[in-house]
Design goal:
By secondary structure, the protein is of the alpha+beta class. The chain contains 6 helices and 5 strands. It has a 5-stranded antiparallel beta sheet with strand order 2-1-3-4-5. A hairpin with a 2-residue loop joins strand 1 and strand 2. Helix 2 crosses helix 3. The longest helix is centred in the N-terminal third of the chain and has 17 residues. The mean pLDDT is 92.
């Protein structure tokens, strides 16, 4: 949002990232983003625009969450090695009772990663708070990503250009 030159304030509120069984991946990402938006709604004035997002990684129709520990991160990256997966970010924009929600998807193809590369990345960057156990803007993105089809910023966690367009619909101009 800084690069889009839109002023904002970050409000962090612990939110349960559990979701009901049976949701499709797009629905899951939006559901979790909505829970985040609702969690902060009481913390801001009623005219404030709330932007909440949640990013998930999907490999072979299986949602991959955040790793709990080193072994979990290594397992996830081993599964992603050499594979194409989908990164989905659910976005919810709320202003009072008005809401705009959407999900954006980006295909990411990893090169085959060696065990050494995976362990180096996990030990140095400790990606335990990252869906899919990686951040594309870190070392693993430079050496491990073969291709990206879709919005690169979506993989970073927020499809900014789409968010800007939706904020304009909400009545918040970009600049």
């Amino acid at each position: 949002m800084e690069w889009a030159e839109i002023p904002f304030e970050v409000i962090v509120k612990e939110t349960d990232e559990m979701f009901p069984a049976g949701l499709k991946p797009n629905e899951t990402a939006i559901y979790i983003a909505r829970q985040k938006a609702i969690a902060v709604q009481g913390e801001v004035n009623s005219g404030a625009i709330i932007l909440a997002a949640d990013t998930i990684v999907v490999l072979n129709e299986r949602i991959i969450g955040k790793p709990k520990d080193r072994e979990g991160a290594i397992d996830i990256l081993s599964d992603l090695s050499g594979q194409k997966h989908v990164v989905i970010t659910g976005v919810v924009i709320k202003k009072g009772e008005r809401e705009i929600s959407f999900a954006d998807s980006t295909d990411v193809q990893f090169h085959e990663l060696s065990q050494e590369q995976i362990e180096f990345y996990v030990d140095k960057y400790r990606p335990y708070d990252k869906a899919g156990a990686y951040a594309i803007q870190e070392w693993i993105g430079v050496v491990g990503i073969k291709s990206v089809s879709g919005d690169f910023y979506n993989v970073m966690g927020l499809p900014v250009s789409r968010v800007v367009k939706e904020l304009e619909k909400m009545g918040k101009s970009s600049i």
